Structure formats: structure tokens, C-alpha cells
């Protein structure tokens, strides 16, 4: 799925640097790896909870902390992706307009 998004973006913005696309792909893979790990953590947390064994319930404290840290990492990666994507689109728009400010930038500075 992410390959379709990235390749579609590349088709519409031919002057986007290949390194940017590689960075996007790597970030999406990193996010997916963390989400896969979270799925395993959630399964283990649920099993421990259902067991009602004190040791398993105590272990859940650490697992939930790890899950929360993973969620923070995913949010950070998505934030970085969003920022990179915006910069790439802005750079692409500037390139297409011959160095003038793109429409997106004009909207940011429009008064009242």
C-alpha cells in the first residue's frame, strides 16, 4: 500500500529527489515494524491479563511502558514524514513555478 502512495507521488512530482523517496520508504517500513511489534505486545498483555497470575500482571507494567514508547516513536516518525513530505512538495512547487513562491506558501502569508 505505501509503495502505491510513494510511486504515485513520484509520478506526479518527477523532480523529487530519489533519496527523499527512499527516506519515505524506510520510514514506512520502520513504522510497520513497530506496529507489528505492538500487535505482539498487545497479544501478550491480553494473555497476561486473562491469566490473572500476579507475575504476569506485574510483567504487563513493563510491556505497557514499551507499548507506550513504541506509540511515541510511531507518532514521531509520522511527524517527520509529514514534515519531509511538506518540504518536498514545497520544493517541487517552487521548481515547477520557476523559483516563485508556490500557491501553498502564498496561502500561509495571506492577510485577513
Automatic annotation (TrEMBL):
Annotated segments matching region Disordered: 87-112
Residues spanning the signal sequence: none
Predominant place of localization: nucleus
GO CC terms, sorted: nucleus
Keyword list, A-Z: Biological rhythms, Nucleus
One matching Pfam family: Elf4
Span of domain Protein EARLY FLOWERING: 16-96
Family according to the record: Belongs to the EARLY FLOWERING 4 family.
Protein name (record): Protein ELF4-LIKE 4
Gene: LOC108806655
Amino acid at each position: 500500500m505505501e509503495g502505491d502512495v510513494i510511486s504515485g507521488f513520484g509520478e506526479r512530482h518527477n523532480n523529487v529527489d530519489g533519496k527523499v523517496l527512499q527516506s519515505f520508504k524506510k520510514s514506512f517500513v520502520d513504522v510497520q515494524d513497530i506496529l507489528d511489534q505492538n500487535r505482539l505486545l498487545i497479544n501478550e498483555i491480553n494473555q497476561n491479563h486473562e491469566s490473572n497470575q500476579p507475575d504476569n500482571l506485574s510483567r504487563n507494567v513493563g510491556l505497557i511502558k514499551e507499548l507506550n514508547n513504541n506509540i511515541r516513536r510511531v507518532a514521531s516518525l509520522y511527524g517527520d514524514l509529514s514534515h519531509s513530505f511538506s518540504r518536498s512538495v514545497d520544493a517541487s512547487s517552487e521548481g515547477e513555478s520557476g523559483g516563485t513562491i508556490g500557491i501553498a506558501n502564498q496561502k500561509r502569508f495571506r492577510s485577513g
